[in-house]
Amino acid sequence: MDTISVEQFIQGIPKxxxxxxxxxxxxxxxxxxxxxxxNKKIEYTSVEELxxxxxxxxxxxxxxxxxxxxxxxxxxxxxxxxxxxxxxxxHEQNVVHVEIFFDPQTHTDRxxxxxxxxxxxxxxxxxxxxxxxxxxxLIMSFLRHLDEASAFETLQHALPxxxxxxxxxxxxxELGNPPSKFKRVFTKAREEGFLTVAHAGxxxxxxxxxxxxxxxxxxxxxxxxxxxxDPKLVTKLADMQMPLTVCPLSNLELKVVPDLKxxxxxxxxxxxxxxxxxxxxxxxxxxxxxxNYLGIxxxxxxxxxQITTLVKNSFKASWLSDQEKEKRITQVETxxxxx
Length: 339
What we know:
alpha/beta
């Protein structure tokens, strides 16, 4: 039997996404559509001009345009449409489970109610499960460039929605905003029954990863590229089987790596770190899940076996039940054996 190409292999394998900001899936076409519906001005005259602006030298340049785009999201239906568009897209790419971030402070700071945001996102996730068969978990992220008081206020907003929100996270401008700044908020969140994750070691140093582990008691590290600067940390991550949710095309676009050929994923795998592949903010970084897998597969000459390991890692790192994980991992292994 002829074996299928790597591209076809990636398309067909069932996948899970663990590091995805729903606001980062805002495609220019939808942004213009919602802006028009809400009579909000965008400073770009066309979809093409906006797409050209998606070229960044660092994390902050990206965040500036990310927050500007989010400004047009006002009504519950806007958040529904944003989330539904993402789910339809990844359904085509054979993503079967998603654990996604949302940034309530991006919206509450400009007068949009927390309830409006979460109700729109949640309704789309429920429809995605019913109509597309995509299971989900929702992670509420605190913006680390804002103060602790704002994070505590956001946590209060989340308490009535414990059934909808599985975890809290930490994102936005990393440098100068270490995890330790939010130790007390994360302690309170854990007391309330939330799981914890945090962005650490993307632009920030490996010390931030230690802080996320020791102070925030995270169950996953988002990004974590800089762990390789610290051999002791690498050993700890491997021993704990602490998942890293790595985002290759994001790393390339934000100059965390100069070229995908330099991406640390193979090194992480060699060091027995539980590394996973994700898209981060796909509308801005040039690709969803399949594009991320294909990008590194081509640049790093990954085998189908290595791709399968990365996919299995994602299921292991997910918050699916043990039974569901086992079922999905068996499906992935069967797919690999047949292709």
